[in-house]
Structure formats: structure tokens, C-alpha cells
Amino acid sequence: MDDLFAKPKPAEPKALSVTQLVRRIKNVVEVSVGEVWIEGEVSNLKKQASGHWYFSLKDDGAQIQCAMFGARKKSGFDALEDGAKVRVFAEASVYEARGQLQIIVLKAERAGLGDLQARFEALKRKLHAEGLFDASRKKALPRYPRVVGIVTSGTGAAIRDILNVLGRRAPWVQPVLMPVRVQGKGAECEIAAAIERMGQPERYGVPRCDVLIVGRGGGSLEDLWCFNEETVARAIANCPIPIVSAVGHEIDFTIADFVADLRAPTPSAAAELVVPDGEELRARLALFRRRIARQLAEKLQTAERTLAVLKRGVLQRSGDRLLREPSMQVDALRSRLQTAVARSMESNAARLAEARANHRSHHPAKMLERRAERIDALAHRLARLGSEQIAQREEKLRRLGDLLRTLGPESAFQRGFSITLDGQGRLVRSVADLSPGDEIRTKLIDGVVASEVKELG
């Protein structure tokens, strides 16, 4: 009976499953946040065999998990690497299996690339309109340069590659390095200044070059950006020496490439373009030598056959006598030819030795040694001239001191004169300057006398 009048128990609230809760959160995130651009640093990049890439995107305050499905089919996948600053276009979501917030990356690009590309295109249009890219203003490279200037980093791989190629192809060529920074703030000013100095060798005291190589090894767009600056482009355009641009790899293009007289895909390729192949030249010389020898042999054989025919004909009886002098001329010509060939070989060997000696004398170490000797001589000269000037000034000061003592008040004191001053220290020249009762001070040779005016005469 009591159970009939008992209060009914309140119904328990319906509980959500974990899956239902996560799906609600996922729906809220996908609807509220949607697709957004996000900028941050890539870390923990994992590339799965399936083609899906997983990584974290972080900044100083937080990080978020990212997934890029079929990464190599997405735009900008090559910008993703550990430590890279990137901008990604992604949709926010939740990974239900773990209840983990994540973003699904749809495309990516390096941070700041959009601005840099816009600046690149704007400067390219400007310089193209000014005619700096015109083929008519580009200078031809010398066929056989003897001095090659190089504007690049003194410690990078580019200079080693260039020197290796020059040494292998044309060891007689003298390289002249103008070391500069090739990336970072202010690098463009160093590159432009180096090109200007190489273009005016007499003014700046550097060797005159027949051709210049300007460039560096590969890198990102940011690393190569100094070669996209207007100051570098104008320095290249104003340089009177032909310039080969060798910036980055074959796929890299910079403003410097368009302005330069010739673009090389790599620094090594630039070295191959500016100098001929020594082995090929030697092979050509050997070929020419063989052709000349063959032509001369054929002419001699023709002459001998002609003589033989003549001997068998009308000259049979006295042929030996008539052919004696021509035979001597042939022998003389053969001797002269052998002598000329030998002299030519000796001359070429001497020129090669001279070129090697000239290369050694213009080595940077030799140039620095001569500059150091000149600085020492100038320092000694400066010290000697300084000592002479000091001595002259001391003598002049001594004479002025003697003159001052001769013409000054002290000489008057020596002759018995004195100087009288009033109470305010003014010089008394006349009795009209004084009144009875005034205090006066009389300066003598050995001191000062103070007195009072009693009367005026």
C-alpha cells in the first residue's frame, strides 16, 4: 500500500557516448573554423609510403597536428621540411579515433614567398621596360680570356667548383677573386660594389679582367634574393666587362640572369663557358700540324713525280744537271720548314712559361706582399715627415718666444720702466685717468707696489 503512494524516481539524464561527443566537437570545429590560412614552423615531418604526410605546425605559443593526404599531388608540397617556415591552406577538423584536434592541409607555400614573387615580377617588368634585358646591349664573351674575375663567396662550394674547372680546362688563365657575402641583409650592396671595382680596375687597383663570373651555389628563393635586388642588376648593366651570371641551380632564375650578358645554369658551367678546353685546343693544333705535314708531303711527292717524268723525257740526257738546283731548293725548303716548326714550338713553350710566371707573379699572396711593402715604406715616410714638421714647428715657436720677450713688457721692465694700473686693473696712460684718493698699482720688474693718489700735478 505504501508503494502506491511513493514518489516516482527522477529519470537519469541520457549519457553521450565518446564517439557522439567527439563527432559533436568535430562538427563544431569544422563549421566554426572551416578553411583558413595558417603560418608556422614545420616539425616532426613523417612521410608515409602511402603518400600521406604528417607533421606538426608550431609557433612560440602553441602547436597543432597536420595531415596532408596524397602530399605529392598537392600544391607546394616541396616547401614542407623540418624547420621550414610555411603558410598552409587547411581545414580544421578532429581525428575521431584519438579525439585529437588537427588540420587537413590542402596546399602549402614558403612563408613570405608571395611577397617575394610579387617584388620579383615588379622589378622584372621595370627593368625590361628600361631595356636592360635587350639582346642588343649584351656583350660577347672573349674567345681566349687570360684573366677571369670571380665575384662570389670566398668560402663556398661555388668558388671551389669554378677554380677546379678553370684549372682543368685552362691552367694558363689567371683567376681573380673578389670575395663577398652572397646571402643575408646587405649582401646585395657588397656584390654591387665588387662588380663596380672589377669594372674600374685602374681606379681600385685590381687586375684588369677579360670576363667576370658573378654567382653562388643553390639555395631557397630567400637565399638567392640578393641577386634579385635592383642595385645588383644595375651594377651588372653598367659594368664594361662581359658578365656571366651563375646563380643557383639550373631551375633557379634571378634578375641578375636576365641582365647579365650570359646566363650559366651553375657556377661550374659558367667556368666551362668562359674558357676554352685546353685538351681540345691541343688536339686541334695537332690536327692542323698533321694536315700541313700531309699537304707538304703530297706537294713534295707531286714535285718528285714531275721531275721523274721530265728526266725520262727531253731532260733525259742532262736532267741531273738541270735538277740539281731545284733539288737543293727543295732540301733548303724542307730544312726551313723543320726550323720554322721547331721555332714555333719553342715560341709556344716560351709563351706558356711566361704565362705561368705571370700567373705566379699575380697570385693574391704576391700582391698582398707587395702591398705590405708599400704600406711599410709609406709608414716610414710618414714618420720621417712628421718628425721634420715637429722640429720645424718647435724652432718657429722658439723664435716667436724670443721675439715676444724682446718686444713684450718684460724688456721694458729691464730698462727701468714700470706699468701703472688703476683699482679696476685698467692701464693708466694720463693723469686725467686718475683722481685724488684713487688706489693705484705699479708693476715693477720684481713686484707690484700699491699706493694712493694724494695730488695730481
List the helices and strands and how they pair.
Elements lengths: L17 H15 L2 E13 L5 E6 L4 E6 L16 E11 L4 E11 L2 H17 L17 E6 L4 H13 L4 E6 L7 H13 L1 H4 L6 E6 L13 H9 L4 E5 L7 H5 L2 E2 L3 H8 L3 H35 L6 H43 L2 H44 L1 H6 L4 E4 L16 E6 L2 E6 L5
Parallel strand pairs: 3-5, 6-7, 6-8, 8-9, 9-10
Antiparallel strand pairs: 1-2, 1-4, 2-3, 4-5, 11-12, 12-13
Helix pairs in contact: 3-8, 4-6, 9-10
Fold and architecture overview:
- This protein is α/β, with parallel strands linked by helices.
- It folds into four domains: 18-111, Nucleic acid-binding proteins (OB fold (Dihydrolipoamide Acetyltransferase, E2P), Beta Barrel); 116-276, 3-Layer(aba) Sandwich (Rossmann fold), CATH 3.40.50; 282-360; 414-452, no CATH class.
- It has twelve helices and 13 strands.
- The protein has helices spanning 18-32, 113-129, 157-169, 187-199, 201-204, 230-238, 255-259, 267-274, 278-312, 319-361, 364-407, 409-414, and strands at 35-47, 53-58, 63-68, 85-95, 100-110, 147-152, 174-179, 211-216, 243-247, 262-263, 419-422, 439-444, 447-452.
- The strands form three sheets. Strands 1-2-3-5-4 form a five-stranded mixed beta barrel. A five-stranded parallel beta sheet has the order 7-6-8-9-10, sandwiched between helices.
- A hairpin with a 4-residue loop joins strand 4 and strand 5 (100-110).
- Helix 3 (157-169) runs parallel beside helix 8.
- The longest helix has 44 residues, at 364-407.
- The mean pLDDT is 86.
